[in-house]
Write a structure and sequence with these properties.
Blueprint lengths: L8 H4 L4 E9 L4 E9 H12 L9 H12 L2 E7 L4 E3 L3 E8 L2 E9 L4 E8 L10 E8 L2 E7 L5 E5 L1
Parallel strand pairs: 1-8
Antiparallel strand pairs: 1-2, 2-6, 3-4, 3-7, 5-6, 7-10, 8-9
């Protein structure tokens, strides 16, 4: 006997998961930040946040509005050997659609002497409390991961 289970279409595609990659690029001297969202989730969230009619696939203005939303809910602070915290001035580079994903880009100069990072990633967590945001940090051949779930708003990682 074959049993088929179906979910309502409004829930079938929502993943409520986003991935951010932080890359320490020695060639450019920059920390490059790349946020990846499923277009379907981002468009649904944009409709909730900014009102109906946000068409991320068709509208550069809608994508820029969503990009602005993301960068205002994300930050990185460096912690040096004296435990001094300095927030990075992340520049908004832009956004693009690539297949089923919407990418939002930021960058900042690499800060000398950093021993740790404090990362805040609240993107979409004000829309869906069960939104999970994974942050992968790539530095000197090592990969560090932070998982923003539940009540996690700010996480610290030693490098």
């Amino acid at each position: 006997m074959l049993l088929l289970v179906s979910a309502p279409s409004s829930f079938a595609h929502e993943q409520k998961t986003a991935v951010t990659r932080i890359l320490f690029n020695p060639n450019t001297g920059n920390i490059e930040v790349m946020h990846r969202f499923l277009v379907h989730d981002a468009e649904h969230a944009a409709g909730v946040i900014f009102g109906a009619g946000q068409k991320l696939l068709e509208s550069a203005d809608s994508r820029a509005l969503f990009g602005s939303y993301v960068v205002n809910r994300f930050s990185i602070a460096t912690i040096d050997e004296n435990q001094k915290s300095t927030e990075l001035d992340l520049a908004y580079i832009g956004e693009e659609i690539d297949g089923q994903f919407l990418w939002v880009y930021q960058e900042a100069k690499i800060f000398d002497g950093m021993q740790a990072l404090r990362v805040v990633n609240m993107a979409l967590r004000d829309v869906w409390p069960d939104q999970a945001n994974l942050v992968n940090i790539e530095k000197d051949g090592q990969i560090y991961s932070l998982s923003f779930i539940g009540s996690s708003e700010s996480l610290l990682i030693e490098l």
